[in-house]
Design goal:
This protein has 380 residues and is an alpha+beta fold. The chain contains 12 helices and 16 strands. The protein is globular. It binds zinc ion. The site of zinc ion has 8 residues, from loops.
Length: 380
């Protein structure tokens, strides 16, 4: 898991050209043959060599090698968990930060004045926290899915199960006709309880999306019983048996989430382009986005998958510019070159409490490309 607070911590360090941060993303997935026998260690070594060659006789080479040694020794002791390792370090400051993620990320090494957070921010955007309610006529299972991992919340089982036992005893006292009516009442009672449990879950785990699982009949009835808050989160239903394995729940949920994400992107980009055309707190195109960023106006940054541009970042005012000049045009402070200006832009948006949306849907990307591949919703 990588929380928003984690990102804030990583982004709180000011850019430092004297002592850059080594950012490492390593595919350690043990389901992949290439990673058996610790194949990821040789992947790391060759990535490190590539950066080292790139630096040539740079005076900071020693600094890089110290960071690389730190990463190397960490990875050689690392027991793979999940699919990817995310690791940041700066040996000169004694800084190390790492997490294991259950999301596949491409392996890469970056040595930059600021932590290179873009891949992990994009993964967080793609896999929003999602609540999953799997239910039949008598039982329920509540889980949350986040960044490729599933967590089940067991208290949900017990409450519904107890009622089921009581109900069976009582039901014997009724005739067949009454039995059916009682059974239907019981299902409704059960689903009401499930809806209440779901409310407590959204309170505790604050997910933004909800998926219902079960037969069409049961999910349709449950849908009507959900609170307004949960109805707003609901993105769809999947057909799954109540005793489905967690791997099956995870697979179905992630597939639905991806489809929803793509659909939402298309809506988002259409609205963005319309708002920008009407100049209603939205802009498109890099120059306007940078101006808005530098004024702290960006509420939601939107860009096409793979968008990249180089430029410069001011060390004093954190201003971002398309071209490189020694001194900042806003404050006169010293600037540093940035190979991936978007990484700096993402950092700035997140530090200021905004959001980031990477577009992957082919249609959404095509629309935004026509407007320069990047845009933003503004705060004011
Ligand atoms: Zn400046």
């Amino acid at each position: 898991m990588i929380s928003r607070r984690d990102l804030h911590e990583l982004l709180s360090h000011p850019p430092d050209t004297e002592s850059p941060v080594l950012s490492l993303y390593l595919d350690v997935d043990q389901q992949r043959a290439v990673n058996l026998n610790r194949g990821f260690e040789s992947v790391l070594k060759s990535m490190i060599r590539r950066v080292e060659h790139g630096l040539g006789h740079n005076s900071r080479l020693k600094e890089f090698l110290a960071d690389a040694r730190l990463a190397g020794s960490f990875v050689s002791d690392y027991e793979p968990v999940g699919k990817s390792l995310v690791f940041f370090c700066d040996a000169s400051k004694g800084f190390i930060w790492h997490r294991s993620l259950n999301v596949a990320l491409d392996s890469s090494v970056h040595w930059t004045p600021r932590a290179y957070v873009r891949p992990v921010v994009e993964a967080r955007d793609e896999f929003e926290r999602c609540g999953v309610i799997l239910t039949d006529r008598a039982r329920a299972r509540l889980s949350t899915v986040y960044l490729g991992s599933i967590e089940e919340h067991h208290e949900a089982f017990a409450e519904a199960e107890i009622r089921k036992v009581e109900a069976s005893g009582m039901d014997q006292m009724f005739s067949q006709k009454n039995f059916q009516r009682k059974a239907d009442e019981h299902v409704r009672w059960h689903l009401k309880k499930v809806a209440e449990m779901a409310d407590r879950l959204v309170e505790a785990k604050s997910f933004g999306r909800l998926i219902l699982g079960g037969t069409h009949e049961v999910t349709a009835e449950l849908k009507n019983l959900l609170s307004e808050r949960l109805k707003k989160c609901l993105v769809g239903s999947v057909t799954l048996p109540i005793d489905a394995g967690t791997a099956d729940i995870l697979r179905e949920t992630v597939a639905l989430e991806e489809a929803v994400e793509r659909e939402e992107e298309e809506v988002l980009v259409r609205r963005l382009l319309t708002a920008a055309a009407k100049e209603k707190q939205a802009v498109v195109g890099l120059p306007k986005v940078l101006t808005a960023l530098n004024l702290g106006r960006v509420r939601r940054l939107v860009y096409s998958d793979g968008f990249n541009t180089s430029g410069s970042e001011c060390r004093e005012c954190a201003g971002l510019f398309e071209s490189f000049a020694e001194n900042c045009r806003d404050c006169g402070g010293l600037q540093i070159e940035s190979q991936d200006l978007l990484n700096a832009g993402i950092g700035r948006v997140l530090r200021e409490g905004g959001e980031v949306e990477q577009l992957k849907s082919t249609a959404a990307v095509r629309f935004l490309e026509k407007a320069g591949g990047i845009g933003a919703y503004l705060r004011f």
